[in-house]
Amino acid sequence: MLANWEFACSAVEAGYFSLLCEDDYQLPDFFQAAAREMNRHPEIGLCFGVTNVVDEDGRHLSIAPNEMATVYYLAGEGAVAMMTLQHPSTPAIHFRAACLKAGEGIRWALSLLMMLGLTVWLVVFGLAEMIMVHMVERPLVKSRQLLGAIRQCFSDK
């Protein structure tokens, strides 16, 4: 997984990017709001919002995840807030490409943790330890994949 992230990040030519699955799509209103905030505040390394969970027909089912204050989090505080207040959906994260590319210092730790079976969240939390994070009010994506993951969690119990 880390190799996939490294390859994907090395191919990014834009200043910002998001990782989306085939059934996710960004909402333009969020993209504009996130880009505006990140342009105003170059210290922000990632910006995230809520995800609208929809069914296979596109009907709105819920918003994920839990509420988190719409504020700027300093490096380290953003990671703590994400872990204690909510778990933002991966597609709902807007990354500053330069920050992710500069995150080589956390590569060895992420490699080890990923080998132990942990997920892409390690990349997000690792970055949030190093850079400023911003939570915005606007939804970023609609996700059917998240709905499938939620169903899987409850069907396993």
End-to-end Cα distance, whole Å, is: 27 Å
Based on Cα principal axes, name the global outline: globular
Task: Give a short account of the largest sheet.
Answer: 5 strands, mixed
Task: Report strand %.
Answer: 15-25%
Given helix and strand content, the structural type is: alpha+beta
Transmembrane segments: 108-128
InterPro entries: Nucleotide-diphossugar_trans
Keywords: Membrane, Transmembrane, Transmembrane helix
Give your account of this protein's structure.
This protein is of the alpha+beta class and 157 residues long. It has a single domain (2-155), classed as Spore Coat Polysaccharide Biosynthesis Protein SpsA, Chain A (Alpha-Beta Complex), CATH 3.90.550.10. Helix content is 42%, strand content 20%. The protein has seven helices and nine strands, in the order αββαββββαβαααββα. A five-stranded mixed beta sheet has the order 1-7-3-8-6, with helices on both faces. A four-stranded mixed beta sheet has the order 2-9-4-5. Strand 4 (51-54) and strand 5 (60-64) form a beta hairpin. Helix 3 (77-85) packs antiparallel against helix 6. Mean pLDDT is 63; it is low at 112-118 and 138-157. InterPro entries: Nucleotide-diphossugar_trans. The chain crosses the membrane at residues 108-128.
Short characterization:
The chain has helices at residues 2-10, 28-40, 77-85, 97-101, 107-115, 121-130, 145-155; strands at 16-17, 24-26, 44-48, 51-54, 60-64, 72-73, 93-96, 132-135, 141-143. It has 157 residues and is of the alpha+beta class.
